UniProtKB/TrEMBL annotation:
The chain crosses the membrane at residues 6-30, 59-82, 102-123. This is Transporter of the HlyC/CorC family protein. One of its GO terms (molecular function) is flavin adenine dinucleotide binding. Residues 225-285, 290-347 form the CBS domain. It comes from Corynebacterium vitaeruminis DSM 20294. Belongs to the UPF0053 family. InterPro entries: CBS_dom, CBS_dom_sf, CNNM, FAD-bd_PCMH-like_sf, FAD-bd_PCMH_sub2, Ion_transp-like_CBS, Transptr-assoc_dom, UPF0053_domain. The keyword Iron does not apply. Residues 2-208 form the CNNM transmembrane domain.
Amino acid sequence: MDIFISILSLIGFVLLTASTGLFVAIEFALTGLERSTIEAEVAQRGDKRSKAVKRDHQNLSFVLSGAQLGITVTTLATGYLAEPILDKFFTPLLELLGVPESATSTIALVLALFVATLLSMVFGELVPKNLAITNPMDTARFVVGPVNAFNTVFKGFIKMLNFSANWTVCRLGIEPADELASARSTQELTALVRNSAEQGGLERTTALVLDRSLKFGDVTAEELMTPRSTVETLHDDDTVLDLIALAIETGHSRFPVIRGDLDDTIGVVHYKDAFAVEASQRGSVLLRDLARPIPVVPESLDGDSVLNAVRSAGSQVILVADEYGGTAGLITIEDVVEEILGEVYDEHDDAEAERDFQRFGTSWSVSGLVRMDELSEKVGYIAPEGPYETLGGLVMAKLGRIPAPGDELILPQSDNPFRAEFESGYDGRWMAKVTVMEDRRVDTVILSPISDEEAAAFEKSAREAAN
């Protein structure tokens, strides 16, 4: 009879451990499922189990409370049942090993507690948890039936526990939620894209476009714009012939029409406007009569709003105003597209000449207009915080004057420990040499990697020359 009871107790121990695993599995499976995944499963199969998973996911607070109750009850029952029966198995074994009778009970009890806890933890918690994380939908479909049966039996008690928990949470100033939010932040989506690319789920080019698209909302009009100093303009008293000549010279299609300077822009003209004027009159028709209004946005406007403004503008060009009311630059639809897709060239562009980054050996020829975030992504150099947005601005700030062709300097180091992936594969010190100036603007800079010893020697000789 004792053997029969012992066997029944062992079977009960196994069943209770498996029951604990059911509640652990439903807990991790439901919290790991996305709403879209569940909707797709219901649409594909449409069976009772899929619908039950959907219902439980929408009533998550109640189901998780039931799971916690089930885990607590089965764990306590497992300990209560397992310890005595395991103690009976260990006691004769210890006697055979010659353990003194006075110590046998204590050692057997400790061993029983250890084995019961170990088995319950491994097979009742860790194994079902890993299964649920690895395959949440199939796991949820498998366990949802018995878990719902338990929740139905103890529905009243679970609701009471859930109400008590929600009341406490409300007192802490937090609104309880019955369903997991399916929305994801930009940072979470960016991490998903990067992980998918690293594991081969997305092609590199696709991942890059998605990553730029997700970050686009954080970009400002100031970062997107073509700076004022590089904008090609026409005057209000210029003629259609001047428009045609400038279009041929620059390869651009749209030009702001100004009265004096960009701060007094009266509109924008397109080279197609020239074809609306008879050839005999193109030397006499003034551009002020053809210019269309051009929208103006603040330089702090976010990328999404900038895109809407550019798309709604009839000319697909908008001006960017600085905080003092002056014109900081302009944005075209091409600027917006290039922020997401990278450099875009048409048949009128010289791709080599207009490329912001050109690599030769270990050095780089970089446009002075590139932003600091672009520089860090491409080259690997991260600048310290300062009153500059571009490489040219950094060079001016470091020199303390308007640079001249041939000026050399060691770029300052940043205390930021972050190092993103970059093409150069080098994140040490960099020497910058100004090679081309456009009036007072830094047009081209050569960046060359140097060692710490070379940087120290250069800075020492520069100080000596200054003295």
